Recover the amino acids of this structure.
């Protein structure tokens, strides 16, 4: 079963922008960049101009361009708190962006640099609560990184910074979500739960807080409670596919197969053929294989859909082989076990089943 147990600092939603407004805004931004660029040519040592151009690029999600200008501005004057804050924010944003595809080493280096910039921002008295919060977030990511050797140290540092942010400003719901997640990682379950609930108290339409609360209940196998939390997410945002996925997993483990199927089918109905689509089909296939023993349904309706999107999905290929074997179609089972092993040669389960099929066939020849 594929359960998506991840931290979100953004919401999974689908929206259609107003194209006219978007194009006008883009044109205005471009005009502003051209204007500032012309001013920079005439005054290349003016750090304020570089910061202003960076802000426009940040608004346009051109973080790499913004980073260059902010670095230049910082080299001209390293005493500007706003510039340090923006540098930290851009570096943190790059780490969190799935489009960047950083190596773990690159991500850790960027997080460490971002943390230093937020400390500098705090020291210059710029946006104290947010500087503490964002520094705490960088240490949170360092703490949950698979490559760090100092998980507890980083998470404790994150806790301290987030608590300091709350001391300065206790009205930011996202700070409580971050702190709740850190407590969750530290297995301080009641403290985590209190933080998520506090975030909801500050913002009743806080889908991310409900999502994390659902994940917390799921981790403790309290599926009745996780179902309630995921439903609240979906009442706020019916297009949150992560919530549909985790709701489907909760229903399945709670033995509510019909409701589980309905939740996973909601993801398929969106028609977006990405990881969520693949996982929904895979979860449905496993349900029909493991729980309902309906191998033909799993094969014809779900596993085949996965292969259409990703022909190298070795788990789906293995399950196809297993379904054919269970249905007595030894020839196709052998073919798909071989295809599985071409992609995943060290998958012993597939190798063992293939060897058994070959051995059994020899007995009857």
């Amino acid at each position: 079963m594929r359960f998506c147990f991840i931290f979100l600092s953004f919401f999974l939603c689908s929206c259609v922008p107003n194209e006219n407004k978007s194009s006008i805004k883009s044109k205005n931004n471009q005009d502003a960049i051209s204007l500032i660029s012309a001013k920079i040519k005439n005054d290349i040592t003016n750090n304020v101009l570089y910061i202003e151009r960076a802000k426009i690029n940040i608004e346009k999600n051109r973080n790499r361009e913004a980073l260059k200008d902010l670095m230049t501005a910082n080299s001209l004057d390293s005493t500007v708190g706003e510039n340090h804050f923006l540098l930290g924010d851009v570096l943190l944003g790059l780490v969190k962006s799935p489009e960047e595809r950083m190596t773990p080493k690159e991500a850790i280096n960027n997080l460490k640099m971002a943390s230093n910039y937020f400390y500098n921002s705090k020291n210059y008295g710029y946006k104290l609560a947010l500087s503490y919060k964002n520094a705490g977030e960088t240490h949170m990511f360092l703490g949950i990184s698979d490559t760090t050797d100092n998980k507890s140290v980083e998470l404790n540092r994150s806790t301290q910074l987030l608590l300091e942010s709350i001391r300065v400003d206790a009205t930011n719901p996202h700070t409580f979500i971050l702190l709740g997640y850190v407590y969750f990682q530290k297995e301080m379950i009641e403290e985590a739960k209190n933080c998520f609930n506090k975030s909801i108290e500050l913002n009743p339409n806080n889908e991310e807080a409900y999502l994390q609360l659902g994940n917390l209940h799921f981790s403790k196998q309290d599926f009745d409670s996780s179902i309630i939390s995921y439903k609240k997410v979906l009442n706020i945002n019916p297009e949150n596919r992560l919530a549909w996925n985790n709701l489907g997993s909760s229903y399945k483990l709670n033995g509510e197969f019909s409701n589980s199927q309905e939740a996973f089918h909601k993801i398929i109905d969106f028609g977006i053929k990405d990881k969520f689509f693949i996982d929904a089909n895979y979860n449905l296939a496993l349900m029909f294989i493991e729980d309902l023993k309906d191998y033909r349904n799993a094969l014809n309706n779900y596993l085949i859909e996965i292969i259409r999107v990703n022909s190298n999905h070795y788990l789906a290929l293995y399950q196809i082989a297993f379904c054919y074997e269970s249905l007595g179609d030894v020839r196709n089972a052998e073919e798909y076990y071989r295809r599985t092993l071409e992609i995943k040669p060290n998958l012993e389960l597939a190798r063992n089943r293939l060897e058994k099929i070959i051995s059994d066939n020899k007995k009857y020849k």
Remarks:
- Residues 5-24 have pLDDT under 50 and may be disordered.
- DSSP finds 18 helices and no strands in the chain.
- Residues 52 and 351 are 60 Å apart (CA to CA).
